[in-house]
Amino acid sequence: MTPIIVVGAGCFGAWTAYHLARSGRDVTLLDAYGPGNSRASSGGETRVIRMGYGAQEIYTRWSWRSLELWKALFERADVPLFHETGVLWLARDEDALTDATLATLKHVGVPHEHLSRAQLESRWPQIDFGAASPEPVEPVTWAIHEPRSGVLMGRRAIEVIVREAGREGARHVAAAVQPPAPGRGRIEAVTTQSGETMSAATFVFACGPWLPKLFPDLLGDRIFATRQEVLYFGPPPGDRRFAPPAMPAWIDFGEEMYGIPDIEARGFKVSLDRHGPPFDPDTGDRVAGQTCDAVRAYLARRFPVLRDAPLVGAEVCQYENSSNGDFLIDRHPDLENVWLVGGGSGHGFKHGPAVGEYVTRLVAEGGEVDERFTLATKEKIQKRAVY
Description:
Strand order of the largest sheet: 6-7-5-14-15-16-13-17
CATH superfamily of the largest domain: D-Amino Acid Oxidase, subunit A, domain 2
Largest sheet: 8 strands, mixed
Shape: globular
Number of domains: 2
CATH topology of the largest domain: D-Amino Acid Oxidase, Chain A, domain 2
Order of helices and strands: EHEEHEEHEHEEHEEEEHHEEEEHEEEH
Radius of gyration: 21 Å
Distance between the termini: 40 Å
Strand content: 15-25%
CATH architecture of the largest domain: 2-Layer Sandwich
Structural class: alpha/beta
């Protein structure tokens, strides 16, 4: 069998290794810190999986496919790491993104509900849909509810997929890889920080925010790692209105906020979705607090019962953004046996299974890469277009 090395045991790399191993390939999966580690973009307790992507139909279809594969994985592994909480999209009268989302969900056939303000207030009275928002954001007037969507248990899901990849024959090795030497043609091996040389015929670098470090000349100004905070607030004792099934996961792109209900007594999760400052995944300080005031102000308006809720937990991770939010899935322009997979841009986790299938097909069978994923479309200036 032709040996393949996958560098990075995050969501994209782990699922790629899994699919490659299932297809009979000889796979070695390398990771510097371990699957689901606290430095990884795929670390953290929970991740939303939703189908809505505006008019970006490919992401809706990939998310729908990925949900099927996530659930099948958890069933085989006998671990309940998906919570079907539903996902609620909050919308306004003039809301092009949510209008496009509604049309795409209808076209693809994803189960959903189009809910009026009155229906929202009846079903979720613990949410203040009329809360005064900072100008120029208008109050919520309608929403989309995706009942089949929900929450993945992040770091534990990565541990499971790496374990299942091992059962399919993939080898997981704890190793940090040095940047490949510049050149053209092919590379025959990678060298670890400890000096070990590891050979293969094909190399897939799916190492998220470390891609710019491994390929600084190529990706140093095309992949942007940003610091992102996640805050957990404690509901009142005995109050189950902020836990499933009473509370869904929710998204309010109008105010750049999203949240996850109180799952496994971790707390009510709220995060500012706006891109944070530049961040180094190896050395960055992971003490949260920079977004706390903005999140608390939103919490007080949208969820009044939680106005004075204690902060019971916090995480700092990073997005690794492409210029517009599209993934990077392409051959290295100078190294024919090297694939670059990343640019998760804060929304990639849910898509891991479909990305792994796609990369496996390209590696095994060849074919053209969808233009939106090519390196050529990755600019040096950020202008977010995928939400």
